[in-house]
Design brief:
nine-stranded mixed β-sheet; 10 helices; about 20% strand; about 250 residues
Length: about 250
């Protein structure tokens, strides 16, 4: 039988409680031990990194306000069809040169505070790391290389012969669009590959399309998240860096 991801004699479960400024836990037994988990899955945009990449690429096309409005509504859960919202935003990016993506990567994209510390702590405790994003492989692969992440799933932008975005995505072996359902499926797929249970997984995100994978994991963590996500997460980091999760260990 797979060991549950808690110590053998945990304190009783607690209702929502701010145990330190900006750090809320609910329905969670603490302290935690990282070593009881085997996989940590991160959303990318606004969770592991500081920006929404699609919004910054749209800025290069002079369409940031329009694209960002759709992004925000989708993250709040007001647009429930993520695939449709993504296609709408992608269509607005048709003709954007790839050079603008490179500029976003080099000039705007940064890791969020505590990201490297948390990832390294998890790796030191023996966890594998998954980056699963409704964003794009162009950015996700660069972030994964920087943090030595084990698994990546994200959307692949289609680029035409003039090195410009077509406004569409490339089909991949698993499908075309990584939405909330695909994030959950990916978490479970990697867990199966590692021969571990979902209870041995941690999932971290900030938007509504992260909720399916967060609900499947043994530990769900909201990072500076939308209200709907904070309400459902077992841990909500509302201030400070991603590494505040380590305060619970």
């Amino acid at each position: 039988m797979t060991q549950a991801p808690f110590s053998s004699s945990p304190p009783p479960q607690r209702a929502a409680q701010e145990i330190a400024p900006g750090l809320v836990v609910q329905h969670l037994r603490t302290p935690l031990r990282l070593g009881d988990y085997r996989l940590i899955a991160f959303d990318m945009d606004s969770t592991l990194i500081n920006i929404e990449c699609i919004d910054e690429v749209a800025d290069a096309a002079g369409r940031k306000a329009e694209v960002a409005a759709i992004t925000e509504a989708a993250m709040r859960g007001e647009i429930t069809d993520f695939k449709d919202s993504l296609r709408r935003r992608l269509a607005l990016l048709k003709g954007v040169p790839v050079s603008h993506l490179q500029a976003v990567l080099q000039e705007r994209l940064q890791l969020n505070p505590g990201a490297q510390t948390l990832v390294q702590a998890c790796q030191a405790a023996g966890l594998k790391v998954l980056l699963v994003s409704g964003g794009f492989t162009y950015f996700a692969n660069a972030v994964a290389d920087r943090l030595k992440i084990d698994f990546v799933r994200a959307n692949a932008l289609a680029i035409d012969a003039q090195n410009q975005l077509t406004g569409e995505l490339l089909p991949q072996s698993w499908g075309e669009i990584c939405d909330g359902a695909e994030k959950r499926r990916t978490l479970l797929e990697v867990a199966s590959l590692l021969r571990i249970s979902p209870a041995q997984c941690i999932a971290m995100g900030d938007g509504a399309n992260d909720l399916p994978m967060m609900g499947a994991a043994g530990l769900s963590v909201a990072y500076r998240a939308k209200p709907k996500v904070r309400e459902q997460a077992m841990v909500a980091i509302n201030q400070g860096g991603l590494d505040r999760l380590l305060e619970l260990t």
